[in-house]
Specification:
The complex is a heterotetramer, with two copies of chain A (about 375 residues) and two copies of chain B (about 375 residues). With about 375 residues, chain A is of the alpha+beta class. Chain A is built from 13 helices and ten strands. Chain A has three domains: about 80 residues, Butyryl-Coa Dehydrogenase, subunit A, domain 1, CATH 1.10.540.10; about 110 residues, Butyryl-CoA Dehydrogenase, subunit A, domain 2; about 140 residues, Butyryl-CoA Dehydrogenase, subunit A, domain 3, CATH 1.20.140. Helices cover about 45% and strands about 15% of the residues of chain A. A four-stranded mixed β-sheet of chain A has the order 1-4-5-8. The longest helix of chain A is centred in the C-terminal third of the chain and has 26 residues. Chain B is globular and about 80 Å long. Chain B is an alpha+beta fold and about 375 residues long. Chain B folds into three domains: about 80 residues, Butyryl-Coa Dehydrogenase, subunit A, domain 1 (Orthogonal Bundle), CATH 1.10.540; about 100 residues, Butyryl-CoA Dehydrogenase, subunit A, domain 2, CATH 2.40.110; about 150 residues, Butyryl-CoA Dehydrogenase, subunit A, domain 3 (Up-down Bundle). In chain B, strands 1, 2, 3, 4, 5, 6 and 7 form a seven-stranded mixed β-sheet that branches. The chains are: A alpha+beta (about 375), B alpha+beta (about 375). Chains in contact: A-B, A-C, A-D, B-C, B-D, C-D.
């Protein structure tokens, strides 16, 4: 039993850290540190820098431009990105669609898309959720009917993160309306420039534009853009959702935000005294730091140990629940630290002292997106109570 | 002991609710923020017409001499409707400061116009370095050419951009944290040396940073009477605490109501989500929090009306602590029960969290009031 | 709107306070303050002192020896008892059985029992719960069959608080096994000296003996001991459970324990410094004190205001939930304050520094007895969600 | 990075679990406490037979030279079975203190007997006024007649009544809180001036208050070497923290298992209570807490084995903080899920809360470790 990196892993971590320190533009680093979301150009620029180094798609096999790294090395890459902080790999391209194409796609689809995904030449977004579907994903109603060499898509997607920045969307559509819920669904790649697509922004409670509604009105999609078999799209979706748990705990994010909390508490004063000297605040930071460490070790334990994965196959829900709770508490702590100094709404372009309070508001999404807290608890309860 | 509104209070609350339902439905409120306006002038006129702006003004000066108890239902209605009107800033804060800190001449000059709603004033007291310290004043006042000049920065001045006058605390003597040595001044927004950087707070309400550079200022009363100044500042803060506690409890009530409606109508997996025991239990926990917030909003109103009494301070600290915490619990729960839609700006529920967060940071946050309550009790 | 007592109420409070100060034996006061439960003789002695003054049964009508007080006066009596601290009125006699007899009992039953209940000449306990019934009270199986002028009772009760101290038990028994659950239940008064009754102690996790199992083996109970009609006992039970909400919030208990927390934190030191100077502990005490005040006002609001009771008829569940939470948190705080100094198990006779940690353990019962937290939440949800 | 037991550890854990299942079933444990015995002599003999008492003893002295990692599964098993054996007191605490603080002669005199289980020793370091301060020592040591005499009081000495020897910290110089100026001594329980007031802790385990009045004492090593003393105390406390973290995580696991069984078998209102979503969600929250406790018990073991390394202290603070908090959550939830039966002494689940509470108070509680962690990090 030990918690040390191997000499190889340590060397890898140092290599990654040095690489990021040398290659990450300081302007991007400072924006992220201040609490801003990365801009599209930040994510693209950084993804290409990583791609040049071969680290754009850490868990893909090398023949598709991936780094073919083991779980610990992937975690190191991710942690170091958070630590810097650097933009994270674009999740839809690298974490979601890539593996689906490799498992279900045709060789042609792989050859065409994978290099472009890795290099962010194409920005994909995910079209799963629909109004009314919520946690019940399979109740989706966006329909695609076959007409010759095309599917004709009609319907609406919602909560489509970054659709306004994206070039393409991978979407679940209903191709058989007679079949039972999970059957009759297909997985389509859709070029967002196709006529008939309208994208409407949804502003989040942080005041920013992350989400969209996407409307499809007689949108023609070539049948060659079907991934896997018609009516078997649910298999792709299930695979996608169960895939790539490296980042689910968000330990690196918690650490980075805790570091920032310490930095801000050192910078702020209250009635002439450094906030960081306040014993209650110190205790609260310490408590969250200790719990972050508990999550970190739990994350390692499950990601690296077969016997643990076998003991609790639903472990991802443990990581999601605790990670969510900590993210939210740490964001609340940050909002408390900046206090009245964080009430002013500022433009997203400002660099120092970013939108701490808005980001606290947005952190409430962590217990809703990617499987609500309630859904995660249902999953775990099924595993432990039956 | 009595927990009911009297007839006047109930009647006013009803008229106000009608006005706000008419002018401050959530879609109208959205259009208002989108328009860039800092508030809705017709609503403000309506408030004056209802006599609400006159409510806290003494009867001798054209008002109704109402206290925090009378304001409670109104502030709850403002919270429910996410009001952006400068009522807290002008009628409550600046009004109380003038009532407690100004001599007769000054009161006669300003309060009738504030009662009629024609004059909007703002309370400019907080400073960045003070954070949650209630009496931290670095702004300096000096006598010059037979008048007074102020230098300093006042942060997060609510409704700053709408104000014709600022009531400003400034230091004549002593160090920033000294309880004495301050005086209150009137500053004309149009004077030289008075600069306001306007912005919106994260709940969409208007505020500003007031930068005073040798700004002309008139003392509200004898500036040497720093005991009166201290009591006026404390009384104003007490009125502010009562008002924001009421506002937060109203906001929490509205968030709660939205969430209950949602549980009763939204279906998922083929049944109402309100049939899920886990969500039902969350709803019950929210109700408990809501009732605590309602109770302490009342306690704050009673304590603020009696702010000069020795034992009123603990209830103000308790209320600020408890209402903020409980109202926040309700808002967080309401968002969670809504799921995705609760995270959007186009739906009301998230706005209540934003409002409660802003109000929690005014007049001292939970930590600050816990420390002060402990000092009062232990 | 105001939070003041009327001059009459204030005078009453002063009268009660003076009375308790003068009449309560200091030995009892000190034992309770230190955290010990009252002994039987404490409760009996104090109840008789109260009865002499006419305050033994605050909410009973005067003709039955009650004080016929309004809700505020009842609350004052209770709060002052907690404040002292003095033993509380024996709940089974005064709060539960008395009102049931007045509503459902015969004049003969009232005349016989009520004076004896008020003076604690007879100590009643409650025989409702059974093994296997738990929150589902109506699933009880203890049976009573009629034989001439007697019921013959067979079965078992559990969680019978103070049965080992009691003279009588009021019990729910099944008199019709064919009827539906809630029907076929009767409410019987049973003399615990009757042959066939066995009482077995159950020790609680504080190590003390509060609870019992009571076994009935062919126990003969005169039919004159039936309260109300045969097979209509569920009405008595419902009435009893919905009755007398004055004490449900336990505000006075919270206040008294918080006072004791302050006292102990002033007495304890850590590494030479008074514990009461610790900023985190101070903040924690203040937080609980503020929430106790919120509960106190909520309690007044619901108990004294008809419109509030109409708005939320299930208000008792709000009071129970919050009161439970605070009691448990305050007991945890006390256990934290005494820290290592509270680990020693001591005899119940010791006066200074009572069983703080055991009482913390026992406080976990607050969310189980008298309607679990889960049951209270179910009730509230029914009221607000439907 | 590696989270698996090695073969030796797994084999030992299995043998131990068999022994405890045989001798320490809950009913047997109840009979043991009812008998008034402080522990079960046959179990203790069994532990010696398994080599467990020898595990932490250096190989040169008849032991296996095991560390906190090796002890982890054993301590978890002790927690699960609510063991009252003096293993923590003697093998872990006194053993570590001797190993780190005693010279060769002293080690050779005591450790072989402790390895075989024949000698039980106890660690007498905590004092009432220190509360959670790790290095608060008021007990005084003075040189007299060519030897040493101790005066002072040591509180909550685990397994005090079973000990043949006490390892006692005492001050030669300086004020109670000074990091230096202390030495460690061996005190014979049978000597004059050594009085032990025996009692049970609230988790039924045996402890005592050691009152030393001019008690004869032998230094473990050169008493002037107070750096070594400090490191020995810190190392002993580190071993203690790792041991109680493991114990608490084992206790939490057992409480969790009982609760899950109960949810799967207990019926109410005509169905399994485990069908209630609210209870199911509580179970999930308990699982999350349990997994955190398990992880941090590992972290504590690794850090204790490496206690001399500069960066091991934070993990010890974190673990003590986090394991206690999470294990307590599990125990509280397990009691609540059981309802009435969970509140009784004749059912095991409540005993886990009692055990976790006692262990939480040893070697510094959550507040103390939060403050120390903050000092290390901020």
């Amino acid at each position: 039993m030990d918690l040390d990196l191997t000499p190889e892993q340590r060397a890898f971590r140092d290599e990654v850290r040095t690489f990021i320190r040398e290659k990450l533009p300081s302007e991007i680093r400072e924006r992220l540190r201040a609490g801003h979301p990365p801009r599209k150009q930040d994510t693209v620029a950084w993804q290409r820098i990583l791609n040049e180094r071969g680290w754009a798609a850490p868990h893909w096999p090398k023949r598709y431009g991936g780094a073919d790294l083991g779980p610990m090395e992937r975690l190191i890459l991710l942690d170091e990105a958070y630590r810097a902080p650097a933009p994270l790999p674009q999740a839809f391209n690298v974490g979601m669609l890539g593996p689906v194409l490799m498992k279900f796609g045709t060789p042609a689809q792989c050859d065409h898309f994978l290099p472009r995904l890795a290099n962010l030449d194409i920005w994909f977004c995910q079209g799963f959720s629909e109004p009314g579907s919520g946690s019940d994903l399979a109740s989706l109603r966006t329909a695609a009917r076959r007409e010759g060499d095309h599917y004709i898509v009609n319907g609406q997607k919602i909560w489509t993160t970054t659709a306004h920045l994206a070039d393409w969307v991978f979407a679940l559509v209903r191709t058989d309306t007679e079949a039972r819920k999970q059957e009759g669904i297909s997985f389509l790649l859709i070029d967002l420039r196709t006529p008939g697509i309208t994208i409407r922004p949804i502003h989040s409670i942080d005041g920013e534009h992350h989400l969209n509604e996407v409307f499809f009105d007689e949108v023609r999609v070539p049948v060659g853009n079907l991934v896997g078999q018609e009516n078997k799209g649910w298999d792709c979706a299930k695979f996608l959702l169960s895939n790539e748990r490296t980042g689910i705990a968000n330990v690196g994010l918690c650490r980075e935000r805790l570091d920032y909390a310490r930095e801000l508490a050192g910078r702020y004063t209250q009635a002439g005294k450094p906030l960081l000297d306040d014993p209650k605040l110190r205790a609260d930071i310490a408590m969250l730091e200790a719990e972050t460490r508990a999550l970190e070790i739990t994350n390692w334990r499950f990601l690296l140990t077969d016997s643990e994965q076998k003991r609790l196959p639903a472990f991802a829900s443990v990581l999601k629940l605790k990670g969510t709770e900590l993210q939210q508490e740490i964001n609340a702590l940050l909002a408390r630290i900046v206090g009245p100094g964080g009430l002013e709404r500022r433009s997203a372009d400002e660099v120092t002292h970013g939108p701490i309070a808005p980001r606290y508001f947005l952190s409430r999404a962590a217990s809703i997106y990617g499987g609500t807290t309630e859904v995660q608890k249902d999953i775990l309860a099924k595993a432990i109570v039956g | 002991m009595n927990f009911e509104l009297n007839e006047d209070q109930a009647a006013l609350a009803e008229s106000l609710s009608r006005l706000l339902a008419d002018r401050y439905g959530f879609e109208k409120r959205r259009a208002l923020t989108a328009s860039g306006a800092a508030h809705d002038e017709k609503t403000w006129a309506g408030l004056a017409e209802l006599g609400l702006t006159a409510l806290p003004v003494p009867e001798a000066l054209g008002g109704f001499g109402g206290g925090a108890r009378d304001l409670l239902p109104a502030m709850q209605a403002f919270g429910r409707s996410l009001s952006m009107e400068p009522f807290l800033a002008s009628a409550v804060l600046a009004g109380t400061a003038l009532r407690l800190g100004a001599d007769e001449a000054m009161q006669t000059r300003l309060l009738p116009g504030m009662a009629s709603g024609e004059i909007v004033s703002a309370w400019a007291h907080d400073e960045p370095a003070g954070r949650h310290a209630p009496l931290w004043v670095e702004t300096r006042a000096e006598r010059k050419d037979g008048g007074w000049k102020l230098d300093g920065i006042k942060s997060n001045v609510p409704a700053g951009g709408l104000a014709r006058y600022f009531v400003v605390s400034a230091r004549i003597a002593g160090a920033p944290a000294d309880a004495n040595g301050c005086a209150l001044f009137l500053v004309d927004a149009k004077d030289a040396g008075v600069a306001l950087r306007e912005f919106r707070l994260v709940d969409d309400t208007a505020a500003g940073e007031l930068v005073l550079t040798q700004a002309a200022a008139q003392p509200l009363a004898n500036p040497e009477d720093s005991t009166r100044t201290r009591l006026a500042i404390q009384g104003t803060v007490a009125a502010g605490i009562a008002a924001v506690c009421a506002d937060m409890s109203g906001a929490a009530q509205a968030a709660f109501d939205l969430a209950m409606d949602y549980l009763r109508t939204r279906k998922q997996f083929g049944r109402l989500i309100g049939e899920n025991q886990a969500l039902r239990h969350r709803a019950s926990e929210m109700l408990v929090s809501l009732e605590m917030a309602r109770s302490m909003a009342m306690a704050a109103a009673v304590a603020a009306d009696d702010a000069s009494a020795e034992d009123s301070a603990p209830d103000l600290h308790r209320a600020k602590l408890s209402v903020a915490r409980n109202a926040r619990n309700v808002a967080l729960g309401a968002i969670q029960l809504h799921g995705g839609i609760g995270m959007t700006e186009e739906y009301a529920v998230g706005h209540y969290l934003r409002r409660i967060h802003v109000l929690d940071q005014m007049f001292g946050d939970a930590d600050a009031h816990a420390a002060r309550l402990a000092a009062a009790l232990l």
